[in-house]
Design goal:
Blueprint (H helix, E strand, L loop, with lengths): L1 H7 L7 H10 L8 H8 L3 E2 L2 E2 L2 E2 L3 E2 L7 H12 L4 H11 L4 H24 L1
Antiparallel strand pairs: 1-4, 2-3
Helix pairs in contact: 1-2, 2-4, 3-6, 4-6, 5-6
């Protein structure tokens, strides 16, 4: 468990509290696909379409208690001088809303965490 926490802390924005929260609330981390882990965390965009109407995508469902931890990690990562900070800046430069860019950053953090833990779960 300790090595999993240390591995998660290598992600920019993820500290000891967020790492232990993710491991405690998502024991499946490292065994799922990127789409499954994003949906389970509640940060996967769900379509709001009907017929020809293309509605605004929203993040719904999932384990609601994980979202605040991911949000705090995303806030820290956007202020860092890392690839995740550059990713956020690039999305803002393309005209995305700040909350949409933060949500994309949350999804990126959880998929990176899942990928980092894959070799440790086998």
């Amino acid at each position: 468990m300790t090595e999993k926490v240390q591995e998660l802390q290598t992600i920019p924005g993820v500290g000891p509290v967020v790492a232990t929260t993710l491991l405690a609330l998502m024991p499946e981390l490292g065994t799922l696909t990127r789409r499954q882990v994003a949906s389970l965390a509640g940060v996967a965009p769900k379509a709001n379409d009907s017929g020809t109407l293309k509605g605004y995508r929203r993040i719904v469902r999932g384990r609601e208690i994980i979202k605040p931890a991911l949000f705090m990690a995303a806030m820290a990562a956007r202020n860092s001088h890392s690839d995740l900070g550059a990713f956020y800046t690039r999305l803002i430069g393309k005209g995305k809303k700040k909350i949409v860019a933060l949500t994309a950053l949350m999804r990126k953090i959880i998929t990176i965490a899942n990928a980092k833990l894959k070799p440790l779960t086998t």
